[in-house]
Amino acid sequence: MNADVEVAQSGRDRLGPLITTLFGLYARGEDNWLSVASVVQLMAELGVEGQAVRSSISRLKRRGVVVADRRDGAAGYALAESTLETLAEGDTRIFERRRATVEDGWLMVVFSVPESEREKRHALRTGLTQLGFGTAAPGVWVAPGNLAGEARRTLERRGLAEYVDLFTGRHFGFGDLRSKVRAWWDLDELADLYADFLRRHRPDASSAPASPAHAFRTYVPMLTRWRRLPYSDPGLPLALLPPGWNGVTAEALFEELNSTLSAPAREHALAVIHGR
Question: By C-alpha distance, which of 51, 95, 74, 59 is closest to 274?
């Protein structure tokens, strides 16, 4: 799953990320389809009432995240083709992320957009931010070098490649690179996001083995909260981060919870989806 397809987590679209997580987890293995009834029932188990769910799905439809799809007389939704592509790309970032090292070097992006197409400038800034790029200077964006392939694919898929040049290399001078990383990324904000994740979900790791229903109620909100973090923090090298970086502890907690909760949560979700 990918932050590309996340809607804002505040205001009236606050349910969008949770519903997107449901579709990303459970629709793709079910011929890319979930009935409205099953989504409403699953969201009810997460404490959300049906009308709010229907309204949020309608907003996702207007955004092009899902498309209406009636099957065998049942109303439902499928993920849009573009959403499927971004989810597939995001699976690697979320579930298989490799933290960069200093030896990976850096990826630098510079772009030039004609004034007549200034909306593309906004799209580029938004896309680079969502990929976790930092800002080294006005119009100069930087990320760990191991993200080059992902960035190239994303920019091409979004139709933005013609405005962009990509470079990879090493930081050759001047100044302390650790200080520059702190200037390019808001490390205090990242540390706060990791601390919030740990505070909320550490108790889930110490509880007794979960029933499928309890695993579902824990796993889906946990994954929804986690999946923005690998994009806010693009796997910056530990050697350039503050000592005792809490992102490492948060990553370990996520991996533990994902390992223990994903299978029973899926068992429960599929039982609801298939009416068992």
Answer: 74
Q: Half-sphere exposure of residue 35, counting CA atoms within 13 Å on the CB side? A: 14
* Contacting residues for 15 by C-beta, under 8 A, at least 6 apart: 43, 48, 52, 53, 56
Q: Please, is 276 exposed, middle or buried when counting C-beta atoms within 10 Å of its C-beta (0-12, 13-18, 19+)?
A: exposed
Q: Which are the contacts of 84, defined by CB distance < 8 A and separation ≥ 6? A: 28, 32
Identify whether the C-beta of residue 99 lies closer than 8 Å to the C-beta of residue 237.
Answer: yes
The pLDDT tens digits of the residues spanning 2-32 come to: 444 433 333 445 789 999 999 999 999 899 9
- pLDDT tens, residue by residue, 238-271: 999 999 999 999 999 999 999 999 999 999 999 9
Q: What does pTM read for this prediction?
A: 0.85
3-class secondary structure, 204: helix
Q: Is the peptide bond before 174 cis (omega within 30 degrees of 0)?
A: yes
Q: Which SS3 state, helix, strand or coil, does residue 242 take? A: coil
Report the pLDDT value the prediction gives residue 1, as an integer from 0 to 100: 52
- Give the residue carrying structure tokens 């009236």: 12
Residues 145-186: tens digit of each pLDDT = 999 988 998 888 888 888 888 899 988 878 789 999 999 999
Picking from 220, 203, 229, the residue whose alpha carbon sits closest to that of residue 262 is: 220
Nearest to 92 by CA among 170, 180, 154: 154
Q: How far apart are the first and last CA of the chain?
A: 27
Which H/E stretch holds residue 264? helix 246-273
